[in-house]
Amino acid sequence: MKNYILFAFALFSAMACEINQKDIHPESSFIKIYNNPSEQLAYYPTGIIQTDDRGFLILSGLKNDSSLFEYPSAVIIKTSETGELDWTTETQYLAPANGFIEINGQYMFAAMDGQNNGYILQVNPTTGDISRADLNLTMPLAIFKDSKEQLVVLGYDFVSRSSTLSLFNSSLKYLSGSALTVNSDMMPQIQAHMNKTGTEFPFFIGEWINASESGYYANCMANYTLRTVFFNNNASPTGGDIYSFQARDAISSLVHKEGTSFAFTRYYGGHNYIASDMNININASQNFNDFTQHQLYDLVPNAKVVARKVVFDGSESMLFAGTTNSNSVAIYQYDTTGVEPIFTYYTDFADKIEISDMMQDGNDEGIVLLVKLYFTGRYLRPAVIKIEKENFI
User: How much of the chain, in percent, has pLDDT values that exceed 70?
Assistant: First the structure.
């Protein structure tokens, strides 16, 4: 395995200029930090997606110590396929959700206005121009594109104190949805999550697909608890969920394998665990607090974990990426048909770091990581790491 120490730098500003940039094998792997000289600015990267020109769009929240806004504004960074900066733009929208999706060639993300109203923002990757569509929901927390090119959005309704799951077609027309009563006022915790002043919860959406049926799962607040709730294909609850203890412990990532088999990571009592092959009843309420599975000793307490299915040379794998206690990003590779890890890849850093997103390059099958980096220990900045597929099995 290869461990790269960060020394590739890029500067972005209103004039989108670059300085002190150095590449590591730019054709197939690189590391880039996108820095800004202002000490007042803090960036909170949320997602990355590849564009038709093989470049990348990066979504980040931006907080300014002197700003009147409570929530970070949404900032978009466009790069080339080797991470070279093309352009950046700061929008008027706030608290961007968990990243980009692409539907019918349109690149989209979710954010809100100053009144907590949620929108889908469509980005032109060439010009940076943005158009919007009203979601008719408040406080968007996560978005997802399903196998039918439909949009699924998780939100929080602070008036009814409920989590909402909304389903839209590829033209962004509302189809159906559900509201899950939280039974307590979680507005302070949701606000702290969105404005980056408290615990950031692992809100996410995924899809389960079986031979004759399909549906979704969402990590959200429901019934006093941060829990994973299962839905059918019209976004109605199946009656199944995975719960733990209030908002202290939770599932941190979840992947559907086949049938009733899932793989997931979770944190409980500060410890992190991974279960690579667990039967889950999507129609029943359950917890796995008494199942220790395999403990991930090297991850930071209550680690954020990003899970993805990938394909290397025709062979499918599951990757789980998290941050270790020694300032590394660990990527655990599992075969989708097995239960034991087949490989672990580490990338070391000199500064504090946290995983934000992970994707597979559609051209060379390399793995692209988006991370939140405390550059020189002081400045919170986004960084992108491209890893060659040859580093995996």
Answer: 92
